[in-house]
Design goal:
This protein is mainly α and 151 residues long. Helices cover 66% and strands 9% of the residues. The protein has four helices and three strands. The protein has helices at 2-32, 39-63, 67-85, 90-114, and strands at residues 126-129, 133-137, 144-147. 21% of the residues are buried. Mean pLDDT is 79; it is low at 135-151.
């Protein structure tokens, strides 16, 4: 029975992850007017672009560890993958890549606002949530105690 529950939980988590990584690509594809802007095509394009960009990025990283170069190579690879799978031009594929990156950056900024931050100097057992929230984590415990006061 626990195996079935584990498989169901894994399938649900995988489905949520697929939707989260595909929606920005779908938005970009619709904005630039790509021929194939459906969920399946965008999911396939996102996965293929990630895999190929990772492989090529690893090879490029052997020659230069420059993050700007790695980002540029990743954008060009993603543009070609999006152009071929979503049946559009290379320039539109690059537009899809840029829209996807812009949405990811906005989501990263929004989530950063609510994620726990490292504690100030000298306070090793506490983490701080921006906006004044404070929590205490015990050294051997996995529980977090939330406090709404700023002090």
């Amino acid at each position: 029975m626990t195996l079935i529950i584990t498989i169901v939980i894994f399938a649900v988590a995988l489905s949520i992850a697929a939707v989260v990584i595909t929606i920005p690509t779908m938005i970009g594809a619709k904005l630039v007017g790509a021929e194939n802007s459906g969920f399946g095509s965008c999911l396939l394009a996102t996965i293929v672009a990630a895999v190929i960009s990772t492989i090529i990025g690893f090879v490029v990283h052997l020659f230069t560890p420059n993050a700007l170069v790695l980002g540029a190579v990743g954008a060009v690879v993603a543009a070609f993958v999006y152009a071929s799978i979503l049946d559009t031009t290379w320039v539109r594929g690059f537009g899809i890549a840029m829209v996807t990156v812009a949405i990811a950056l906005v989501l990263e900024r929004v989530s950063e606002k609510y994620m726990p931050q490292p504690a100030p100097e000298g306070q090793t057992e506490e983490w701080w949530v921006p906006g004044g929230g404070r929590g205490v984590v015990g050294s051997r415990e996995l529980r977090r105690v939330w406090s709404l006061d700023a002090g």
